[in-house]
Specification:
- By secondary structure, the protein is mainly β.
- Helices cover about 10% and strands about 40% of the residues.
- The protein contains two helices and 17 strands.
- Strand 1 and strand 2 form a beta hairpin.
- The radius of gyration is 16 Å and the shape is globular.
- The structure holds 6-O-phosphono-alpha-D-mannopyranose and zinc ion.
């Protein structure tokens, strides 16, 4: 495995910005067209206001190999697509036996999880919440507030991201705004 020099990163706890910046991933609505339940709302937003930046990920550049601990911050901007709150794509780990740890830094969010055996779970997160994604659980985060939801994540270097399974099946649970109340509902399109 790669032998590295120790290093550190300064993280702005409010904004999630990494210094030095070693990489940033930006995800737009156009890249998640079919992931939101209300696909009419998606197409309306894209036509009326153009593309929308949903979330950003500040990553450390580390080799994706066993023994390394990858880490990043994610910033989900506030907003909704129809009644569904802005969220990440979500994924299983390619190596299902690898878990992950999250730490809420700013804003309000929730962590939606599920297993391929049909179990579901939702953990609400605020600054200071450490949430654990055990092995075998797919995970997606959602911004349920009016400010950016920012959290730190750390996971095994060889875990890998399996996006395909979620792209095909979706998540069983949706996080929606029901007239000012955050509600967990069943996804009518779950396969
Ligand atoms: C968390 C971690 C990252 C992930 C990011 C965005 O910070 O789980 O590995 O990349 O969220 O989520 P996604 O990759 O599902 O878009
Ligand atoms: Zn993960």
């Amino acid at each position: 495995m790669t032998i590295l020099q120790p290093f550190k990163t300064e993280i702005d706890l409010k904004t999630g910005v990494f210094t030095p910046e070693t990489g940033i991933i930006k995800r737009y609505l156009s890249q998640m067209r079919s992931m939101f339940a209300d696909t009419d709302a998606v197409e309306r937003i894209l036509a009326d206001e153009g593309d929308r930046l949903l979330y950003e990920v500040y990553v450390t550049k580390l080799p994706e190999e066993a023994g390394q601990i990858l880490h990043c911050t994610t910033i989900i901007h506030p907003g909704k697509i129809g009644s569904e709150f802005h969220m990440t794509k979500g994924h299983y780990h390619a190596r299902r036996e690898e878990g992950e740890v999250y730490l809420g830094l700013s804003g309000d969010g929730c962590l939606v999880m599920q297993t391929q055996e049909g179990a579901t779970d939702v953990q609400f997160m605020k600054p200071g919440t450490a949430a654990y994604v055990p092995p075998y659980w797919a995970h997606r985060t959602v911004n349920i507030g009016e400010a950016p939801f920012v959290f730190f994540a750390a996971w095994a270097g060889d875990a890998g991201h399996d996006y395909g399974t979620i792209e095909r099946d979706g998540f069983r649970k949706l996080i929606v705004d029901a007239g000012g109340r955050v509600e967990v509902t069943d996804n009518p399109k779950y396969r």
